[in-house]
């Protein structure tokens, strides 16, 4: 009878003893070797994250790719920009429906950006400095990948103003996002150049891998919305981070309770 290794993303041995007698304690987590388990039931019962140990050889990973809004950072930037125009609720509803896959991303972005027309570019700095934080565990995760010589990228349907600053702040290697059009220090209500939608995100990851000579299986992708699924589907390992139900059912790893640093538990630490 084959055994399965399950990662308990917690060091609570009282919980571990209730699950199995065969468990091993690591630096940041516990691993169980059991025949089978219902991970959804375990997650709900103990309110911590559980995942199967990936069969993928993680020592082969070359690239880590993260979505930005509500994944690598704690906010949806466009909603916070809208707050300065007193239309956060209106824009937020559109954002949420888009991330659930109920609205087309392209038309949704066009509509939301158009509502920002006339806002001062100073608002962007205020959002970054006053509203934006790196998600829990995000800095530790990026630092960990650097120790493993794994390249890091942020690929977003958001805006380059924020991805560029995060690249500098976190010393990320690559970034891709939409460009906000600005004239006379005001947002014009449109974006410039290629729209970074689900397909463009996937294309960016593919092109980066092709250029560097990496296999797509050597990539980890983390995201939270349906517009992340295309790039998740090509990756060797896909991670849903506090994600929508429509995303969770399609991924390898689910993080619903902990921070991004729970991804480190997948490696033998």
TrEMBL record:
Originating species: Vesicomyosocius okutanii subsp. Calyptogena okutanii (strain HA)
Catalysed conversion reaction: O-phospho-D-serine + H2O = D-serine + phosphate; O-phospho-L-serine + H2O = L-serine + phosphate
Name of this protein: Phosphoserine phosphatase
Active site: 67, 69
Pathway where this protein functions: Amino-acid biosynthesis; L-serine biosynthesis; L-serine from 3-phospho-D-glycerate: step 3/3
Any GO CC annotation of this UniProt entry: cytoplasm
Cofactors (names): Mg(2+)
GO biological process: L-serine biosynthetic process
Gene for this chain: serB
EC number: 3.1.3.3
This protein's record includes keyword Metal-binding: yes
Pfam families: Hydrolase
Similarity-based family: Belongs to the HAD-like hydrolase superfamily. SerB family.
Annotated GO MF terms: L-phosphoserine phosphatase activity; magnesium ion binding
Species classification: Bacteria, Pseudomonadati, Pseudomonadota, Gammaproteobacteria, Candidatus Pseudothioglobaceae
Keywords for this protein: Amino-acid biosynthesis, Hydrolase, Magnesium, Metal-binding, Serine biosynthesis
């Amino acid at each position: 009878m084959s055994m399965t290794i399950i990662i308990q993303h917690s060091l609570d041995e009282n919980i571990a003893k209730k699950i199995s007698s065969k468990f091993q304690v690591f630096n940041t987590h516990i691993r169980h070797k059991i025949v089978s388990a219902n991970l959804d039931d375990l997650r709900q019962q103990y309110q911590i994250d559980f995942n199967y140990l990936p069969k993928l050889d993680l020592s082969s990973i070359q690239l880590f790719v993260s979505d930005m809004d509500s994944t690598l950072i704690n906010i949806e930037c466009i909603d916070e920009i809208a707050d300065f125009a007193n239309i956060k609720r209106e824009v937020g509803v559109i954002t949420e429906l888009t991330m659930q896959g109920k609205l087309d991303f392209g038309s949704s972005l066009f509509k939301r950006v158009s509502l920002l027309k006339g806002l001062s570019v100073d608002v962007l700095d205020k959002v970054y400095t006053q509203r934006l934080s790196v998600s829990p565990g995000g800095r530790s995760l990026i630092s960990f990948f650097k120790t493993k010589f794994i390249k890091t990228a942020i690929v977003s349907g958001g805006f380059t103003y924020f991805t560029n600053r995060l690249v500098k702040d976190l010393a990320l290697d690559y970034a891709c996002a939409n460009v906000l059009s600005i004239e006379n220090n005001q947002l014009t209500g449109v974006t410039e150049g290629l729209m970074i939608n689900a397909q463009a995100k996937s294309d960016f990851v593919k092109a980066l891998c092709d250029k560097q000579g990496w296999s797509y299986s050597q990539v980890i992708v983390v995201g939270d919305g349906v517009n992340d699924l295309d790039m998740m589907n090509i990756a060797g390992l896909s991670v849903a981070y506090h994600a929508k139900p429509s995303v969770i059912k399609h991924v390898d790893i689910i993080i619903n309770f902990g921070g991004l640093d729970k991804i480190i538990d997948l490696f033998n630490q």
